[in-house]
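Appendix B. Chain record.
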Amino acid sequence: MEQLLRQHGLKATKGRIEVLRLLKEAHTPMCASDVYKLTSKHTTSSLSTVYRILNQLTDIGLLEASVQQEDVTYYEYKEDEHNHYIVCSSCGKFTPIHNCPLDDLDDHIIQSTGYTITGHSFQLEGICPDCQKKLNP
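Structure tokens predicted for this chain:
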């Protein structure tokens, strides 16, 4: 982690290392308050420190802001393949959508506009099967 941060021009502070490690090991996107609750107060003294670290790590491309829900941004470690999610509007559960449904659209847009696409966002909302069962027993 330390070398990765240095390669991207950031000092390898304990807070950055801990936040990066936490998100790399997470199995689901996390918001700043979730990250703050799981980090040591010695390395991330305040929620604003966590926000600052998340923004820095996103700006340099190590993290990605992958889900927006009720004005809250959720972050995840950026892998080679990016993820999209469907979010339950009842319970808030995230379910990953595997195999990006926008790749073909990106190719079409590149061909028709000449743009170089540097990224895209895609998120669906719905009611998960568990919540559907609760609504329709």
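Further analysis of this model is presented in Appendix C.
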